[in-house]
Amino acid sequence: MTVKEKVLTFLLGAEDKSISGEEIAKALDVTRSAVWKAIHSLQKDGYQIEGVRNKGYRLLADSDKLSAAAIQSNLKEEKTKFVIQIYEELPSTNQKLKELADKGAKEGTVVLAECQKEGRGQRGRVFYSPPKTGLYMSILLRPSMEQTKAMLFTAAAAAAAALSIEEVVGVKTQIKWVNDIFIDGKKVCGILTEGSMSMESGEMDCLVVGIGINVYRPKEEFPGKLKNTASAICKETGKNVRNILAAKLLERFWRYYQNLDEKKFYQDYRERLVGLGKEILICKKDRQVKAKAVDLDDTCGLVVEREDGIKETLRGGEVRILQGGDKEENP
Is 168 left (phi over 0), alpha (psi -120 to 50) or beta? Predict the structure, then answer.
């Protein structure tokens, strides 16, 4: 860890107290000059650090910039599992991580961005990713597992995201099958899982799990139809919220992943699932089919019953929940 990262971690742990440069230097066993240089470098990076004569330095409450060091400092059990890379701007964190995977990046590599220009969701839709308001993160996995179990990864990520949001922010979440998270009827998180398969073994070669969370509302508000359908998990900027949330999510998801066959996430996922017992529309490429969502199977496939009485299990795709008059509900 560099001096700059050590200073940032120290300030994060100081809560709202001002800490003198001399105290920081002594605690980190570096010179006061090195502390001063680190503080100025952090300020140039966008951290809101207040310096008061005879009091010291303090990280302001509205400072919430993504930091690999800050995420690592909030990891408790899995500190050695992740290689964290943060970018100011990317076309897509999934796209960047797939490029790194092709070059041999190891399992546990994590890519985050302050902004995505081409963030994607299900069915090629755009995932709105404005600067410094969201948590846009992709995790690289190299599992030894058949492609037929791929849905478990998405469901595990959804459960991990939902529980982490609840823990950090203290709000109740809902999950719309298979990969969207809602608060008060509005979407706050989407998950996109993409993978490549070995033609020889029939097993997955690598899997990229992309998670996008609206942490704060954008200053210009959500564009177009998103004004009515999207929301954020926080009402105002908080100190280090995104780094803490990233750490909680990574730890929880990794525990699920390490024991995926045990499906420890399943009950949490099912308890938050909306739509069971309701009329839905199954959205296919060329048409929409009305059905009723009747159950969730043990691989997180959605069991539906069509109007003609035939039951089938959905292994992917999109569904929309209907209310009276065949109008779509908001989750």
Answer: alpha
Boundary residue ending a domain (273, 297, 317)? 273
| Terminal CA-CA length for the chain | 43
d(CA 238, CA 185): 23
User: pLDDT tens for residues 41-65?
Assistant: 888 877 788 888 778 888 776 668 8
Residue 168: which of 239, 72, 271, 80 has the closest Cα? 239
Cβ-proximal residues to 181 (8 Å cutoff; 6+ apart), any chain: 158, 161, 162, 165, 173, 174, 175, 187, 188, 189, 190, 213
pLDDT in tens, 242-278: 999 999 999 999 999 999 989 999 999 999 999 999 9
Q: CA distances (Å), 291 to each of 24, 270, 286, 303, 308, in order?
A: 62, 19, 16, 10, 9
Consecutive H or E run containing 86: strand 83-87
Phi, psi of 129 (to 5 degrees): -135, 70
Q: Any idea what DSSP says for residue 290?
A: E
Beta-strand relationship, 109-113 and 83-87: parallel
Q: Domain range holding 279?
A: 275-328
Q: Phi then psi for 304, rounded to 5 degrees?
A: -125, 155
- Do 260 and 112 fall within a single domain? yes
